[in-house]
From TrEMBL:
It comes from Acanthoscelides obtectus (Bean weevil). Transmembrane segments: none annotated. Residues 3-129 form the DDE-1 domain. This is DDE-1 domain-containing protein. Pfam families: DDE_1.
Amino acid sequence: MNTTFVCCAVAAGQYVAPMVIFKRKRIAPELADRAPPGSLIEISDTGYINVDLFVTWLKHFVAAIEPSKEDRVLLVLDGHTTHSRNLAAIEMARENGVIILQLPGHTTHRLQPLDVAVFKPFQVYYDQSVEK
């Protein structure tokens, strides 16, 4: 079963609750029972993020961080097409003072330390827990 966690680390210290995407047709209320407060619980046919869910997450991010055209923030993303080829998200970011910086592909080991140090071990432990 595919499950996606959309997480954000903020250099200034603000907290952005994660978005969890389950591979399901309907949301079961108990899916949110143990999630961190404020988490978004979503579903998709694949369990992966898509362009619509990324826009949903970006709205969540903007609400948590409260950027503006006068007080802009930098959002560093990988090159996944749900971010990089998503006109609705790009326009929303521009309108809300979010500058998007897309990292080059195949640079996870150098430029995405959260993927290596946090998300990969989390994935291993999550998978082990689900299989029990």
